[in-house]
Amino acid sequence: LSVTSAEDPVIMSNIRQNLREKHARHVADLRAYYDSEIQSLKQQLEASQRTASSEDLKNINQNIFCDLFLLNRCDQLDAALDEASARIKALENKNNMLEKQVADWRERFCAVSDTSKVLQERLEEMRTSNKEKDNTISRLKSRLKDLEEAFEKAYKLSDNKNARLKEENKMFQNLLGEYESLGKEHERVKDTLNATENKLLDANTEISDLKR
């Protein structure tokens, strides 16, 4: 048998079952044989009891004693076989229980691995989105700075350009509101990203525990 076949519980169970059946047949054949021999010797003893010499009777008695001893030995072997069969049955039950536990842990491990994979994908997506939002905020900051500089420049150039300044101020306020809105959205995305990273860390910890 190969190493893989020898480690297969189904193959080992079949081998043990075949050995038990073979041993049981062998013991039954021995019992039948010795029962037949004892019966034959008893018949011979009865037939030759009147005519046999004392030496013959002694040999016959010795043969009967040997046969009885072998029959008793067969009974002992049969009892040992029953005990071994019970022990094998108990071990097989325990092995089946352990196999079920391994299957349950394997399913749980697969489920946690799938969850971890999904969380990892979501985390990557959120990181990409957060990076894009950071870039947008950077562009808005640059634009805001440009507008501030333009506002200051326009204010210094002429006090008569109030309408233009009001319009630019309105644009500035709108841009500032958009910037604040994006800032809040950015903070919310950061919080969500942190929560997702914590979940991923918990999932990886559980995977490490399941692997151990």
Automatic annotation (TrEMBL):
Organism superkingdom: Eukaryota
Coiled coil: 74-206
GO cellular component: centriole
InterPro entries: MPHOSPH9 (IPR026636)
Coiled coil in keyword set: yes
Keywords noted in UniProt: Coiled coil
PANTHER family membership: M-PHASE PHOSPHOPROTEIN 9
Record protein name field: MPP9 phase
Species for this entry: Hemiprocne comata
Gene coding for it: Mphosph9
